[in-house]
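Lay summary. Proteins are chains of building blocks that fold into shapes, and those shapes determine what they do. In this project we predict the shape from the chain. Here is one chain we studied, written as its sequence of building blocks.
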Amino acid sequence: MTNPNELHPDIHRQFARSCFNDAWKLMELAKRKKSEDAQMITLAHTSLWHWQQLEECSELEISVGYWQISRIYSQLADSQMAIHFAKLCLRVSRKLPPFYLGYAYEACARGYAIAGNNDEAQQLLELAHTACAQISELEQNNQLEKDLHDISQI
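And here is the predicted shape, written in a compact code that computers can read:
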């Protein structure tokens, strides 16, 4: 039997992307079955694992993976897991461009908002807005601003 760590890098890359995209499709559904919720979690974790098997895996891929996992747990109202993965995301995002740092703060703020800790969520939202103001690409700036606004609806 082949050790999964010995798979060709192209296979890990393909699985990482495919699992991420499939999890994203489930995230976008307005209504999901419990089995789809479980599948969504598994896909996001699997995507990150496959990225981590690649030599070229950087803080950026890890940040995005942790962010997706945190967002999924937020969607499922599991604030403890959402915050856990958001903090991991923030830890690896500190030296990344403002777009990714802003999303790390967004994930933390969302997790704390779901937990009902509005003071912590507000502090993190302010940090996210600060990072957002440093984003030069208009589309990225608008995307993050929209997600930050959505947190106020929680």
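What the prediction tells us: The mean pLDDT is 95.
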